[in-house]
Amino acid sequence: MNSFTTLSYIVSHIFLILYIYLFIVHRYSRLITGLLCLGLFSALSILDLFKLLFYPDSPLCYVLVTVLQIIATQSTAFFTARKKSGQSLFVALSASSYVIAGAVSSAILKICTGSSLAGILGGTAVHLGILLLLSLTVRNSCLKFQEKPVQKGLWELCLIPVFFYCSFSFIAFFPHTLYDNPDNIPGIVFILITMFISYIVVLRYLESENKRSAIYWENRLQNSYIQGLESRHYLVEQAEQNLKILHHDLRHYSRIIDSLLEQKNYEKIREVNEHIRHMASENKVEEYCGNLVVNTILSSMMAKALSLDIKVDLDARIPKEIPVNDYELTLVIANLFENALQCVKTLEQEKRHIEIKIHCLDHRLFIQTKNQYRDEILLDPDTKLPRSRKKGDHGLGMQSVRSFSEKIKGTVGCDTENGIFRITMYAKL
User: Fold this and answer.
1) Fewer CB within 10 A of the end CB, N or C, for the chain?
2) Which CATH architecture is the domain 287-428 placed in?
3) Which segment, 155-159, 250-254, 324-328, is predicted with the most confidence on average?
4) Which of 58, 116, 92 has its CA nearest to residue 165?
């Protein structure tokens, strides 16, 4: 019995590790996450060996070891999870309930067939079947769900896997095992069916939450987009107003110059002329490309770079008419430009340099920013795009860039080389 139990525990721990590795959105690299999961497997195995070797028939030892294993599992899952949220806890607890369901199935098969081999193989098949089914159907939704803000209900939802875990434990293993009370098998089967029905309902709920969260983020991005447009529109209106004022003032300056000419006061004329040129330069809108909307944001961002004493090499080749929404393109350019400015503004003067290429020619869109950096670039493990260091900052800027890239069926990525950080977007339009 001990050999079967030991093998059953090992199989269960392996699949528990796989659940945590596959279904939790991790904050660390695959290597570090894998090492942490290996450490968890070792801890769980040591606890099981202690129980089987020293207190195999002790209900108290079973309870204590089970509690310690749950704490170790949930702590590892929470420690490796990117977000310490109800979503992550729910997924980790669900993994435990799925695993114990597989372990119970293994015990039932052992009792019904009288064969330890059939129990181990059958239990492994159940474990693998559940894992493959969940991986093929809900894994992507589960990973996305953990990244979305959920306002309420998730902490309460965690009671569901806790209930099923406790039910399996008390009916199948504590204080007496199924081997001692095979009459409990129908009750166990009923709980198994109830669990899977419950999880179908929960998954439906999670799908609705995903849709609600998607709408929430779309609204956030849309609001950010509208705010950006409003600020750009204000700049255009301000420039137009300044030009109107300048045009109005020029008529007065013309009369002044005529009067000074009559007086032959050429020195004063030169002063007035210099003043007019200065006013004209302040209100001048530089032409960086042929598209009016894009040119407006480029003028705004170049002015900001100048105020921060940052050198920018800008290569913008965008015609008047382009096959994408120019306002959406403007928002992307503004976000990438702003990120580059924020990255270099704290560097030494000689390193405060940005290279930007924006080409929209021959039905191809190419955008690239290059700049030096000081601090380590934090990348999202899923999107491989930069994420903010600010606490509570959800990185709306980069999300808008990614959203636009997906909309036009393009690609966006980043890389570092010799102290240079580069973001590149490309799409065939």
Assistant:
1) N
2) 2-Layer Sandwich (3.30)
3) 324-328
4) 92
